[in-house]
Design brief:
The chain is mainly beta. It is built from one helix and ten strands; from the N terminus they run E-E-E-E-E-E-E-E-E-E-H. The termini are far apart. InterPro entries: CheW-like_dom_sf, CheW-lke_dom.
């Protein structure tokens, strides 16, 4: 009797951003926290809400949507980032799609959130050089 190969699975967070499902892989997700007090940084782009502390470290807080229910702390390029704007739907192991850049959940496809794009908000344009990150 031959066994059917199991689909690849990926661990992480399933979130909703403007009603659409997205995925944050477990290897970049550090924690889910209540939104802390955020100090606005003069001259920062609107997407950068400011800075906050997480377990004694200062991290930039970046908005990817309008929701302000939680902050997801992620690690990208060796640095911590606070991400707000997405509501957390669940955490666990999800079926990977064939392209491996998304997961399937209840008939929906949740693409990975591109943290390089989020991180580039800290590094690009006139803002570059002001954040030592």
């Amino acid at each position: 009797m031959s066994e059917r190969p199991s689909a690849a699975k990926r661990g992480g967070l399933l979130v909703r951003l403007d009603g659409q499902p997205f995925f944050l892989p477990a290897h970049v997700t550090v924690s889910i926290e209540p939104v802390p007090p955020i100090v606005r940084v003069p001259g920062a782009p609107a997407q950068i809400l400011g800075i906050a502390t997480h377990e004694g470290e200062v991290l930039p807080v970046i908005a990817i949507g309008a929701d302000r229910s939680v902050m997801v702390v992620c690690r990208y390029g060796g640095e911590l980032l606070g991400i707000v704007g997405a509501s957390v739907v669940g955490a666990g192991i999800f079926e990977s799609t064939t392209d491996a850049d998304s997961v399937s959940f209840l008939g929906e496809t949740a693409e990975d959130i591109d943290l390089s794009e989020v991180y580039n908000a800290l590094q690009g344009g006139a803002w570059a050089g002001r954040w030592g990150g």
